[in-house]
């Protein structure tokens, strides 16, 4: 164990997080672990959801935003409906991921981040998600094994008539793009 | 009776069968769903993860479009769309800051949302609005000797606890019981299948899928009924890989509850799109 | 009217008021108000030197009205009234301005606070000008006490009162006294057998000539007021003549109808005619008519046939009796949360998930398994999990801490270890070992080799017949699925389902958690909003045995201090009728929440029963002719006060 030097602590991090919908109540977390015990992905995480909350409160910004844990959440909200203090860990994970991407903490190897960004790109293009475009673009990004892993599913779906080949589009696509531009946080590089 | 309808992106491709069967069943019940003109993607988990408020604004645009067209209720089939739209609706009603953000974003494109629209899942519409009696009256070919587990997935009652219990929902049990099928107890009915990470965390997803298939098989289910496109695809398409990974031999058809209802209502099988599953629907379909 | 001479005293309350309010400035302002002879500020008006100041001024400056600007009248109005009396002034020539709770504690800026304080002082000065002398009177006190609920708190209260030579009646809803404690096997931290320490008290209560037991009875109605309550009690039909019955037990041995035993928390069976448990007091049976074949189908009658003394009486009916009491102690206890409310805990889903009370019955020698801890299939569990905080400290269920379950969970863990020799896991959030000998007990149980996992036992799942407790071991930061054979849920302590009905019957308020509300959370834990009605034990909030016993004894002291005074003081702040103006419309009769207004049929006017009236003013507000008024809250007093507040 290493000494936690006080200069590693970013005291403003907690306030940064409490500004998000998911961060509003984390000051009252009683560290009971209900979130982790309810989480089907907790076993895959380097830090459990409870610990992530404590790390946010302690100001361990870098450790939290570079963790694998925040990308494991499947957004099932089991923690959120059970939290005895009304905290919404699912929404907290959204906030942490968003900050990790904006501020450049997120590793380019993080599949989920790549996928989510690809999703946003497709959405930006059509206003809707065209599954073949999404799967295709994602499959060819970065990791070549990904393509191999996904191929059987894609072929199967195609064969079963589960892939609509012509993208469906939003007519007023400008509206969608404007919405995205207006509400998407600005990218800030980590110092 | 007409409702605004939010199809969601997958209904135009991977869950075409859900949309077709849902519309066919509702049509037979005398209900018309009218697609929101120019609807956009709800944003789902990916947009929420990149920009948490963008998904709210995207959902709000759909609600505004429905409201402008004079609707008071938006019916949603996909659980993820439902959860996102309901999230926007809930934040709009309860969180002044979020309301201001959504209103402001919509205003820049000359749109507004007054909070007049409520979001309803198709299960809610069928079981709590049309009611079991109306469904029962439409059943002409009751299913016999078919055991079904209702699998709701994670998002139906969560996080808003809007129309069904977040831990032990019952609406689909009720709908399926009307078909004459034996609806089995299913403890994992509201566990997550991992659909939102099916392309990115495959190993974990297989574990989650196996959990659900295990209980379905253990209880002797002939069919798993679902109400979400991601659940359907995940549980259906990955059975072979689960079997390879865990040395199991699951082979359980995964159908939308609307397809099961449609079969019991004696609807034309073409309209129910029964041939699109990886694990063939088999016996259930040929009643 | 003689010349009105008012003294005004502005209290600093240390820094409580002075930090926000310019007390000297307020006093200076008050000095300039009409009829004010002297105005001062002082650090602590309630302290002896502060009171002496008032007394001296009354003498030196011939004051005949006093205003103190300080805290809430709930705190110190009685103090200052006594000060006036000791200086020879009528106590009601006093008025208090609350510049602490209403000003310094709730106002942001110093200037604002000072202005508000001035306004309230001016209002009090304007009001006190119109005060009139009032005189307290006394009514006789009935010396009998009613104890409602015969659990350990109620039994203790009754025994203490009886020991003083006064009469007590215990009304208990169940067929036996004993309450929740009777169901327990051992008690923490000493591991005394619960029955061994409880039954002597139960027997003592039954044998005490000053105690009358009404078991299988409920209070229907309470009328009257402190010192003179008239209480209507329903004695439910037992269907057994208590005088004839010898308690031989032949009836329930022969009865053919079996019913889940509520005393064993549904684990075992009892008969339709039954004694709830072997040590029951009274140890005489009762027929559960809902489940009795004779009552439901008109056939059977076995118990009647076999009874050697002819005590079974199917024709017995409920009896209503009305008795007089001077004081009432409500000790109706608590229930536990319905564990099916959290399906994730697995109760009702899986056979071998049980509640703490069920476990107590399993371990108990007189329980359904004669003290063997066994699973549904009869085998002994090798791994037992005890889950703390099930539904407690949880906004989705009960926000509060149920207080004693850490300790009872430790006890259950100990018993599980002792009885099974297996592995025992205790899932806790925080270990709250607050009482005498409790931390030591925690240490002892740790030494016994219990596995303590700091993490909420969040969910119980089953796979292939095996139970798993899902949790995070928060000290390790690891997610765990712990395989176990038996899960014991220590569910939250909750108010009884009929708490609202009981509260209304006795005029008790409830706190947001649903338990009965005490008059002051720290200083009046046993009194309620209704004079002469006291609360004790688990009905006021979760309590363990030592606390319940203390409260029972404390409530007895409260009741005795009333009874032994022999007289009850009646506040003069009550409604009064101007008979000349009363039109006899009777509107006030129907509205009075205390039934304090009667009608004089000869004079055709309303009459106030001053002993019952609480001075709430509902009648005065509703009176169309302006005949009804409340003393000390006259129109001119209140209007003068409001006028000043608005003027500043």
Characterize the quaternary organization of these chains: heterotrimer
Strand content of the residues of chain C, in percent?
15-25%
Number of helices of chain A: 10
User: How are the strands of the largest sheet of chain C arranged?
Assistant: 10-7-6-18-29
Report the strand count of chain A: 0
Structural class of chain A: mainly alpha
CATH architecture of the largest domain in chain A: Orthogonal Bundle
**What is the typical, i.e. mean, pLDDT of chain C?**
96
The CATH superfamily of the largest domain in chain A is Alpha-helical ferredoxin
Number of strands of chain C: 34
Radius of gyration of chain A: 19 Å
What profile does the largest beta sheet of chain A have? Answer: none
Note down, in words, how this protein is organized:
The complex is a heterotrimer of chains A (191), B (287) and C (648). By secondary structure, chain A is mainly α. Helices cover 52% and strands 0% of the residues of chain A. Chain A folds into 2 domains: 7-102, Fumarate Reductase Iron-sulfur Protein, Chain B, domain 2 (Orthogonal Bundle); 111-183, no CATH class. Chain A has helices spanning 12-18, 34-38, 49-58, 61-65, 78-82, 89-102, 111-126, 131-140, 144-159, 173-183. Chain A is globular. The mean pLDDT of chain A is 91. With 287 residues, chain B is of the alpha/beta class. Chain B has 2 domains: 2-122, Glutathione S-transferase Yfyf (Class Pi), Chain A, domain 2 (Up-down Bundle); 141-278, 3-Layer(aba) Sandwich (Rossmann fold). Chain B contains 13 helices and 8 strands. Chain B has helices at 16-28, 44-50, 52-68, 79-94, 96-107, 122-130, 132-138, 171-177, 202-218, 229-237, 239-246, 257-264, 269-272, and strands at residues 2-6, 32-35, 73-76, 118-121, 147-151, 182-183, 223-226, 254-256. In chain B, the strands form 2 sheets. Chain B has a 4-stranded parallel β-sheet, sandwiched between helices. Chain B has a 4-stranded parallel β-sheet with strand order 6-5-7-8, with helices on both faces. Chain C is an alpha/beta fold. In chain C, the strands form 12 sheets. A 5-stranded parallel β-sheet of chain C has the order 10-7-6-18-29, covered by helices on one side. In chain C, strands 20-27-21-22-23 form a 5-stranded parallel β-sheet. In chain C, a hairpin with a 2-residue loop joins strand 11 (217-225) and strand 12 (228-235). Classes of the chains: A mainly alpha (191), B alpha/beta (287), C alpha/beta (648). Chains A and B meet through helix 5, helix 6, helix 7, helix 8 and helix 9 of A and helix 2, helix 3, helix 5 and helix 9 of B.
């Amino acid at each position: 164990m290493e000494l936690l030097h006080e200069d590693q602590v970013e005291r403003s991090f907690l306030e940064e997080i409490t500004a998000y919908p998911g961060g509003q109540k984390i000051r009252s977390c009683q560290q009971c672990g209900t979130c982790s015990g309810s989480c089907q992905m907790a076993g895959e995480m380097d830090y459990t959801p409870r610990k992530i909350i404590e790390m946010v409160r302690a100001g361990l910004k870098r450790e939290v935003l570079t963790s694998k844990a925040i990308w494991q959440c499947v957004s099932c909200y089991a923690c959120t409906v059970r939290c005895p203090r009304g905290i919404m860990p699912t929404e907290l994970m959204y906030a942490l991921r968003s900050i990790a991407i904006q501020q450049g903490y997120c590793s380019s190897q993080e599949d989920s981040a790549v996928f989510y960004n690809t999703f946003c790109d497709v959405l930006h293009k059509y206003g809707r998600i065209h599954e073949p475009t999404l799967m295709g673009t994602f499959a060819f990004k970065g990791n070549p094994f990904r393509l191999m892993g996904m191929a059987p599913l894609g072929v199967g779906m195609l064969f079963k008539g589960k892939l609509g080949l012509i993208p469906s589009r939003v007519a007023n696509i400008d509206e969608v793009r404007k919405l995205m531009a207006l509400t998407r946080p600005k990218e800030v590089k980590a110092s | 009776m007409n409702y605004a309808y939010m199809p969601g992106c997958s209904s135009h491709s991977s869950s075409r069968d859900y949309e077709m069967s849902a519309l066919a069943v509702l049509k037979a019940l005398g209900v018309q769903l009218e697609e929101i003109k120019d609807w956009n993607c709800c944003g789902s988990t990916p947009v929420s993860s990149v920009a948490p408020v963008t998904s709210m604004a995207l959902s709000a645009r759909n609600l505004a479009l429905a409201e402008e067209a004079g609707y008071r209720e938006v019916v949603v089939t996909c659980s993820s769309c439902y959860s996102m739209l309901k999230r926007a609706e809930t934040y709009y009603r309860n969180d002044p800051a979020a309301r201001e953000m959504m209103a402001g974003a919509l205003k820049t494109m000359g749109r507004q949302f007054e909070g007049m629209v409520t979001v309803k899942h198709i299960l809610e519409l069928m079981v709590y609005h049309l009611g079991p009696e109306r469904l029962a009256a439409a059943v002409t070919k009751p299913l016999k000797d078919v055991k079904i587990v209702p699998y709701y997935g994670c998002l139906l009652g969560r996080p808003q606890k809007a129309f069904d219990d977040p831990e032990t929902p019952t609406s689909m049990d009720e709908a399926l019981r009307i078909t004459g099928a034996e609806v089995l107890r299913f403890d994992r009915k509201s566990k997550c299948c991992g659909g939102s990470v099916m392309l990115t965390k495959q190993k974990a997803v297989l574990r989650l899928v196996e959990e659900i298939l295990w209980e379905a098989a253990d209880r002797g289910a002939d069919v798993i009924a679902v109400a979400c496109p991601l659940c359907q695809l995940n549980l259906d398409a990955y059975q072979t890989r689960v079997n390879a990974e865990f040395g199991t031999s699951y082979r359980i058809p995964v159908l939308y509850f609307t397809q099961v209802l449609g079969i019991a209502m004696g609807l034309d099988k073409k309209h129910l799109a029964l041939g699109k599953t990886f694990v063939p629907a088999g016996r259930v379909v040929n009643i | 009217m003689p010349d009105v001479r008012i003294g005004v005293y502005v209290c600093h309350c240390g820094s409580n008021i002075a930090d926000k309010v310019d007390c000297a400035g307020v006093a200076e302002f008050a000095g300039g108000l009409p009829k004010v002879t002297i105005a001062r500020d002082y650090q602590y008006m309630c302290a002896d030197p502060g009171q002496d100041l008032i007394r001296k001024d009354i003498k030196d400056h011939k004051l005949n009205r006093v205003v103190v600007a300080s805290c809430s009248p709930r705190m110190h109005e009685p103090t200052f009234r006594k000060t006036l009396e000791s200086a020879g002034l009528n106590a009601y020539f006093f008025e208090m301005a609350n510049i602490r709770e209403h000003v310094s504690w709730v106002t942001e800026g110093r200037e604002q606070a000072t202005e508000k304080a001035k306004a309230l002082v001016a209002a009090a000065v304007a009001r006190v000008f119109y005060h009139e002398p009032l005189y307290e009177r006394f009514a006789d006190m009935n010396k009998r006490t009613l104890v409602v609920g015969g659990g350990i708190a109620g039994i203790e209260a009754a025994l203490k009162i009886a020991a003083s030579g006064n009469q007590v009646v215990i009304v208990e809803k169940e067929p036996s006294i004993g309450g929740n404690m009777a169901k327990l096997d051992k008690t923490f931290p000493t591991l005394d057998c619960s029955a061994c320490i409880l039954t002597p008290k139960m027997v003592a209560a039954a044998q005490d000539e000053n105690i009358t037991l009404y078991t299988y009875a409920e209070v229907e109605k309470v009328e009257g007021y402190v010192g003179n309550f008239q209480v209507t009690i329903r004695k439910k039909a037992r269907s057994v003549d208590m005088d004839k019955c010898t308690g031989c037990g032949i009836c329930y041995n022969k009865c053919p109808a079996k019913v889940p035993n509520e005393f064993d928390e549904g684990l075992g069976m009892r008969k339709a005619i039954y004694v709830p448990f072997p040590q029951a007091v009274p140890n005489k049976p009762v027929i559960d008519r809902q489940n009795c074949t004779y009552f439901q189908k008109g056939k059977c009658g076995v118990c009647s046939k076999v009874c050697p003394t002819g005590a079974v009486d199917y024709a017995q009916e409920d009896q209503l009796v009305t008795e007089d009491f001077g004081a009432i102690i409500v000790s109706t206890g608590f229930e536990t949360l319905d564990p099916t409310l959290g399906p994730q805990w697995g109760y009702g889903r899986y056979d071998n998930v049980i509640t703490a009370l069920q476990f107590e019955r399993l371990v108990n020698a007189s329980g359904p398994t004669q003290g063997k801890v066994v699973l549904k299939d009869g085998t002994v569990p090798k791994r037992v999990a005890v889950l703390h905080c099930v539904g407690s400290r949880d906004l989705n269920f009960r926000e509060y801490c149920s207080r004693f379950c850490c300790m009872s969970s430790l006890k259950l863990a100990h018993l599980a270890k002792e009885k099974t020799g297996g592995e025992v896991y205790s899932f806790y959030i925080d270990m709250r070992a607050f009482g005498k000998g409790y931390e030591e007990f925690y240490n002892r149980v740790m030494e016994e080799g219990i596995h303590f996992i700091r993490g909420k036992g969040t969910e119980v799942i089953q796979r292939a017949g095996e139970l798993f407790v899902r949790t995070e071991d928060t000290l390790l930061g690891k997610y765990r699925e712990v395989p176990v054979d038996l899960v014991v849920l220590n569910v939250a302590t909750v108010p009884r389902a009929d708490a609202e009905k009981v509260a209304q019957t006795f005029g008790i308020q409830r706190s947001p958690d649903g338990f009965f509300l005490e008059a002051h959370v720290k200083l009046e834990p046993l009194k309620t909003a209704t004079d002469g009605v006291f609360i004790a034990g688990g009905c006021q909030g979760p309590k363990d045995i030592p606390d319940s016993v203390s409260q029972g004894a404390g409530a007895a002291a409260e009741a005795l201090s009333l009874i032994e005074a022999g007289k009850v003081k009646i506040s003069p702040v009550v409604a009064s009728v101007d008979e000349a103006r009363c039109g006899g419309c009777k509107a006030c009769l129907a509205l009075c929440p205390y039934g304090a207004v009667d009608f004089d049929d000869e004079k055709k006017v309303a009459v106030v029963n001053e002993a019952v009236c609480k001075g709430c003013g509902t009648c005065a507000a509703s009176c169309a002719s302006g005949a009804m008024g409340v003393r000390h809250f006259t129109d001119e007093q209140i209007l003068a006060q409001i006028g000043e507040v608005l003027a500043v």
